[in-house]
Design brief:
heterodimer, A: 720 residues, alpha+beta, 17 helices, globular, B: 165 residues, Ubiquitin-like (UB roll), DNA polymerase, domain 1, 5-stranded mixed β-sheet, 5 strands, binds FE2/S2 (inorganic) cluster, iron (chain B), 2Fe2S_fd_BS (chain B)
Chain lengths: 720, 165
């Protein structure tokens, strides 16, 4: 079939859609922008209260140990200290968790990861609190460390949560498996293919590394409750977990969103919330807790590291016959959102391709490594690195252009996913690939200027490590599929929410339709992409025309269509509300002698359904692409077999600077998604998927090395 | 100890400063100027960037006592006395360079310093000047746009009536 024509109604996203003045489709400024450039925006870490104390957490130095004894007397005796709390002081529920209640508020007799909270201190100066925490005497007896699949599932493996009572416990193959999800389609056992490629891949642990540290200010209230101001992604989920721990009715646990300095998934779980509230309720004083960067690295969940094994079978003309894959994710000591991560990895594990026969399996392990949970593109990022590497491998085996191979297998609207879910919205996978491929390539040897060499354009930068010898250019492609929800946190919902509300006010009921409510409510009339449509699909008018300029008094609520859990054995089910797609082309210069990589350009093409605020949509794609670059060549939380983190600081854990991130030209398509208001589709996650494999493919082309793990470090390129 | 310094043109002093406190801590916790941010506390992220006697510094790495008698300029001092935004602030808002905004105060100070030194910076100059300021949200494209815009307006001030939002 070859070339897929552009879908009907293809539009490019400009800065402002025609007719969008003041409404959806116009690039507008963030409502909080001015406050943020003047320094007046109150982040949670900026909040103060007269009389407040500073809270501090004492954390475990061991990945796995028994707590033999705990003595707080010396800490309590330090002048300026107002409270020292341990597990024994907890007033009510002792555990919490996003999906399973498996995480201790403070460790009881056992710690399961480095950085597990053991005691809390409240003092009148942060330095006093730090010193007091160091005076808590804890005697640990180290236990054997579970650190990978072999040690987690060995016959004599220590069971990390012997008393599991979660709803998956009865269905897992081993108690150290948090959750397992197979996805089966067609007849994978009997499928045969002319060309077969296999590969094993590794994705390192990574950190969300938002800049604004975890912070909360808890203020005890007159009614015996507490007011908590906190930087979080999910106020309601926080409250649901907090109330039982504090032993209070939910109404007496009142949360207010403090200014959030980035999240990317790391604020879905509790951090300071319970600890600040416990200290405040215990001391009767407001308590502020702010993590420093070291504590932030140990105090929030990370992106699951993964090992992935794939086998792809195809016909000689490059059509996928089957994909078999196994994805092992390491959840670390606690479950957090691992079941969702596993579900994504399994259900999206073959990528944005049509595959008749599929046998995928994804699972998450309990280990003594740092706990892992949500991060932008959860589960789908790990899978995308591996299935895109496989597509490149297959292209080599078939002697076929890698873009052409992807286009031949590209998913399109109307196709069926391995989960049985029909893709009932635009899926312009082939078109996105064409857009990035057809862009002109950046000029070669950018460091050569008229009068010599500009070292800033060399892979070594100002380190002056070379003058351009030994540098090879590479070009690579990647495309990914991600599911989309409507959760706060990744996309620019603060702006989008306000924009939509503004639109409703301008356009919503009761406009000129007021006298004609019967017609408005007539069964079958629907709103599709901002137009009023009859049951036969006839467009009556655009909503803007119909409703005019009159102000509105009513706000409408949109609830996305329901999704269902995947079948435990087969993975079948309508599991995702929406899919989103992004493609990247990466151009790299690699100094093959020194192992240094410079990404020269990272072009992206993405379908965003409808850009409510085009400037924000572009920002999401740029930001996601830069994070994908970080995973490709820079970012990894290094954890030893002892379960200890080697690089919990920005000195050692490197996130991309403005020197690392290249120009990122974009093509944005707006193919309205019929099942979402305004045709919108979440934009923030998909670009995080495909940037990584595209960059690694480009490095492979330059170096001819297999490169089966990310991040790619210099020693992987030089073999040293 | 007591520390006296000039912040954004006003003399300020803080009492009971512990010797280990940084300039950043004193600005944020003792002088009521939380605009400068702490994202690492060890000189790696640039969120705490201020001008100290004109030089760009990471205020988390400056002991408060070292700032005794110095002139400090922070993000709170960028807008003029009537609250009108400085050109670099306006450009950040307009180009979408502000997202979560935690990096923004540091980037503004560094960009302002660059534009005072280099009238028409090339992209490579902008990247070099801002290399010490981490941003996790934008991918830096809109930050580059903002600096380019502010530079263009500085050399052709009358060209754009939309100079201040
Ligand atoms: S807080 Fe000073 S450089 Fe990061
Ligand atoms: S805008 Fe969030 S870190 Fe820069």
């Amino acid at each position: 079939m070859g070339v897929v024509p552009p879908p009907d109604g293809l539009t490019r996203c400009g800065d402002t859609a025609p007719g969008a003045a003041g409404g959806a489709g116009e690039s507008t400024r963030r409502p909080d922008g001015v406050l943020k450039v003047t320094g007046d925006f109150a982040y949670a870490s900026d909040l103060r209260h007269e009389d407040m104390l500073w809270g501090r957490t004492l954390r475990s130095p061991h990945a796995h140990a028994e707590i033999r004894s705990l003595d707080t007397a010396e800490a309590l005796a330090l002048p300026g200290v107002h409270a020292v709390l341990t597990h024994a002081d907890l007033p009510a529920a002792t555990h919490y968790g996003l999906e399973f209640t498996d995480q201790p508020v403070l460790a009881d007799d056992r710690v399961r990861h480095q950085g597990e909270p053991v005691a809390l201190v409240a003092a009148d100066h942060p330095e006093t609190a730090r010193r007091a925490a160091a005076l808590v005497r804890v005697v640990y007896e180290p236990l054997p460390v579970v650190h990978d699949e072999a040690t987690a599932t060995a016959p004599d493996a220590p069971v990390l949560h012997p008393d599991r009572d979660d709803h998956h416990a009865a269905h897992v193959p081993h108690p150290n498996v948090v959750y397992r999800q197979p996805v089966l389609a067609g007849d994978p056992t009997h499928a045969v293919a002319a060309v077969v490629v296999r590969g094993d891949y590794t994705v390192g642990t990574r950190d969300q590394a938002f800049l604004g540290p975890e912070s909360g200010l808890a203020v005890p209230a007159g009614d015996g409750g507490v007011d908590l101001h906190v930087a979080t992604q999910r106020l309601h989920a926080d409250q649901r977990q907090l109330a039982p721990v504090l032993g209070l009715e939910p109404e007496r646990v009142r949360l207010t969103l403090g200014g959030v300095g980035g999240a990317f998934g790391a604020r879905e779980d509790l951090s300071t919330q319970a600890h600040a509230c416990l200290l405040a309720l215990h001391t009767g004083r407001p308590v502020k807790m702010v993590y420093d960067r070291h504590e932030s690295f140990l105090g929030h969940v990370h992106r699951h590291p993964a090992t992935l094994s794939y086998e792809h079978g195809a016909t000689l003309d490059g059509r996928l016959v089957y994909v078999k894959g196994r994805i092992v994710l390491d959840s670390g000591a606690y479950a957090s959102s691992s079941p969702a991560v596993v579900g994504n990895a399994a259900s999206l594990g073959v990528g944005p391709y049509r595959v008749p026969h599929v046998a995928m399996e994804a699972l998450a392990l309990y280990t003594n490594n740092p706990p892992c949970g949500a991060m932008r593109g959860l589960g789908a990022v790990q899978a995308c690195f591996a299935y895109e590497a496989q597509m490149d491998r297959l292209a080599v085996a078939l002697n076929m252009d890698p873009v052409e191979l992807r286009r031949r297998n590209a998913l399109t609207q109307g196709d069926t996913m391995p989960t049985g879910q029909r893709v009932d919205a635009p899926a312009p996978v082939a078109e996105l690939l064409r857009l990035v491929r057809d862009r002109p390539l950046p000029p070669p040897r950018p460091w050569e200027t008229g009068d010599g060499v500009d070292p800033r354009a060399l892979p070594g930068g100002l380190a002056n490590s070379s003058v351009g010898e030994g540098i090879v250019r590479g070009v690579g492609y990647g495309v990914g599929i991600e599911n989309v929800g409507f959760a706060e946190g990744f996309d620019d919902h603060s702006t989008a929410g306000v924009r939509l509300a503004g639109d409703r006010m301008r356009r919503g009921e009761p406009g000129p339709w007021r006298g004609n409510e019967a017609a408005w409510n007539a069964p079958g009339l629907r709103l599709v992409g901002g137009e009023v449509v009859t049951p036969r699909g006839e467009v009556l008018a655009s909503l803007a025309e119909v409703l005019g300029e009159e102000a509105v008094e009513r706000e409408l609520e949109f609830r996305h269509r329901p999704a269902e859990p995947f079948d435990r054995a087969t993975g079948q089910g309508f599991g995702h509300v929406q899919y989103s797609f992004c493609a990247h082309r990466a151009v790299v210069d690699v100094d093959i002698e020194l192992g240094l990589v410079r990404v020269v350009e990272l072009a992206a093409a993405q379908d965003v359904g409808r850009a409510i605020n085009p400037r924000a949509a572009r920002g999401q794609i740029h930001g996601g692409s830069a994070q994908g670059l970080g995973l490709a060549v820079l970012e990894e939380i290094l954890v030893g077999p002892d379960g200890l983190v080697r690089d919990p600081s920005f000195t050692d854990y490197l996130i991309p600077t403005i020197l690392d991130v290249p120009p990122m030209p974009l093509d944005i398509l707006e193919l309205a998604e019929a099942h979402a208001p305004y045709g919108r589709c979440g934009a923030g996650e998909a670009p995080t998927l495909s940037a990584t494999p595209a960059i690694v493919a480009a490095i492979r082309q330059a170096t001819r090395l297999p490169l089966t793990r990310v991040p790619v470090r210099p020693e992987h390129l030089t073999g040293t | 100890m007591r520390v006296t310094l000039t912040v954004n043109g006003r003399e300020r002093s803080a009492d009971h400063v512990w010797e280990g406190e940084s300039l950043l801590y004193v600005l944020r916790e003792r002088l009521g100027l939380p605009g400068s941010k702490n994202a690492c506390g060890q000189g790696e992220c640039g969120s705490c960037t201020v001008r100290l006697d004109g030089d760009l510094v990471c205020s988390c790495l400056v002991a408060a006592g070292q700032a005794e008698g110095c002139e400090v300029r922070t993000v709170e001092g960028l807008a003029d006395a009537d609250g009108r935004l400085a050109p670099i602030q306006a450009a950040f808002v307009e180009t979408g360079a502000v997202r979560c905004g935690f990096c923004t105060p540091g980037l503004l100070l560094a960009a302002e310093e660059l534009l005072a030194r280099v009238e028409r910076p090339a992209d490579a100059d902008i990247r070099e000047a801002l290399a010490g300021n981490l941003c996790r949200c934008t991918g830096y494209e809109s930050v580059l746009d903002a600096v380019r815009l502010a530079a263009a307006r500085a050399t052709a001030p009358a060209a754009d009536p939309e100079r201040r939002p």
